[in-house]
Q: What sequence folds into this?
């Protein structure tokens, strides 16, 4: 390998650094711009409902009997969650949607938007709706909760009473924007920097080979 002077080494170093930085900036900018163009925001509203039997109606039962009823309700929560996500519930929910929302969302869209999440050791079931607008997510979550209240006794005879808790609002929804432009920019910058390192190495190697042949 050719022996380089200190001046030549410094020049090569700074040229490599500049190349790496330029490619990193270009890579980060390109990936970040691409992510920005593809970004979309989704909104998630959550409607909590309680499903339980009224223990006051079983006041004559012993404490053990009431505990058994509560435990039975707790054990049924995963089943209730599956029912809430069923298309039958979505069909009923779709009919309850405001006309302004219904025309943009089919029954399948409503079904795809819904996720029912039972709380651990709790009789509370969270019905979460993810949609393209805060207004739509609130409407779908609320309509699905009402549909569960209406249809659950038919779909699961003997199920507990469904009680809707506070209604979600557009202010209570959460939002998520994907893809993350910053993450894409960081990946692009890393890739650009790596390409710059490879190019610098190749150029230096080729210069060595050329000078050796001379």
A:
């Amino acid at each position: 390998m050719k022996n380089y002077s200190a001046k030549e080494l410094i020049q090569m170093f700074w040229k490599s650094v500049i190349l790496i930085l330029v490619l990193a900036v270009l890579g980060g900018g390109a990936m970040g711009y691409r992510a920005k163009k593809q970004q979309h925001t989704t909104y998630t509203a959550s409607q909590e409902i309680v499903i339980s039997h009224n223990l006051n109606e079983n006041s004559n039962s012993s404490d053990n009997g009431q505990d058994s009823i509560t435990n039975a309700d707790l054990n049924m929560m995963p089943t209730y969650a599956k029912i809430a996500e069923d298309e039958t519930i979505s069909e009923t929910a779709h009919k309850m949607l405001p006309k302004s929302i219904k025309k943009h969302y089919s029954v399948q869209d409503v079904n795809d938007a819904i996720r029912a999440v039972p709380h651990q050791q709790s009789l509370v079931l969270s019905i979460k709706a993810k949609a393209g607008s805060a207004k739509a997510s609130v409407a779908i979550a609320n309509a699905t909760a009402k549909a569960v209240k209406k249809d659950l006794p038919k779909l699961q005879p003997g199920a507990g009473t469904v009680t809707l808790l506070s209604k979600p609002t557009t202010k209570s929804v959460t939002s998520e924007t994907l893809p993350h432009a910053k993450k894409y920019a960081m990946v692009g910058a890393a890739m650009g920097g790596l390409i710059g390192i490879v190019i610098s190495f190749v150029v230096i190697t080729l210069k060595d080979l050329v000078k050796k042949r001379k």
About this structure: The chain has a mean pLDDT of 87.
